[in-house]
Design goal:
The chain has one domain. Helix content is 76%, strand content 0%. It is built from four helices and no strands. Helix 1 crosses helix 2, helix 1 packs across helix 3 and helix 3 packs across helix 4.
């Protein structure tokens, strides 16, 4: 399970970093804006004053809130102190 988690983490990081640049096409670029890394990139660029508040920042806030809710639910629901 740990290895699967690491592989998914690598895929999400690469999707966010390479996809946002547009190198993989317009469809992948749109998908990457909703990835965790894409949302964080949009939020950091606005927070640092590099861009103004726009649609990508709003998408980043919505996506980040969604990720917090979903991953908190999954983590709380299936967390165990002891393995079976």
């Amino acid at each position: 399970m740990n290895a699967i988690g690491r592989l998914l983490y690598i895929v999400l990081i690469l999707l966010g970093l390479v996809g946002v640049s547009g190198l993989l096409g317009k469809v992948v670029q749109e998908i990457s804006l909703w990835s965790p890394v894409g949302a964080v990139i949009a939020l950091y660029s606005t927070a640092l004053g590099m861009t103004q508040w726009d649609q990508s920042t709003t998408i980043g806030v919505i996506a980040s809130a969604g990720y917090v809710v979903v991953f908190a639910f999954v983590g709380i629901r299936w967390f165990r102190w002891e393995s079976r």
